[in-house]
Task: inverse folding
């Protein structure tokens, strides 16, 4: 099960889907919606170098991450969305996500991809 309270998953291998999207996904002929697709990427790791705490200085922070692994995972899922499903994908590399406009049938197809971590509605801002 998902660790997010408003998400459900059938098995550990399934991607998390918000409960608000479930009726739309169940609709066979629903219209396309803008969605954010989370990608399963290697975790970022942070290490701290030893340093002195004199004069209020903090130890230096070193970021150890698998940048190339993250980039490859995101690119692989984006390529799958573009080539196999025919969806133009907007890659958000820093967040490890991809923005697409997809129908329920297309979403059901890419939810089965092993690199799909979750799907969220891409909410637009309202003008006040």
Result:
């Amino acid at each position: 099960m998902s660790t997010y309270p408003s998400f459900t998953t059938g098995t550990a291998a399934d991607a998390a889907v918000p409960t608000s999207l479930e009726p739309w996904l169940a609709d066979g002929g629903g219209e396309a919606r803008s969605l954010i697709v989370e990608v399963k990427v290697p975790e970022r790791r942070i290490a701290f170098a030893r340093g002195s705490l004199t004069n209020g200085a903090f130890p230096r922070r070193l970021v150890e991450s698998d940048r190339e692994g993250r980039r490859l995972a995101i690119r692989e899922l984006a390529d799958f969305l573009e080539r196999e499903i025919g969806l133009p994908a907007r890659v958000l590399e820093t967040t490890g996500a991809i923005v697409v406009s997809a129908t329920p049938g297309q979403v059901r197809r890419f939810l089965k991809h092993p690199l799909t971590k979750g799907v969220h509605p891409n909410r637009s801002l309202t003008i006040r």
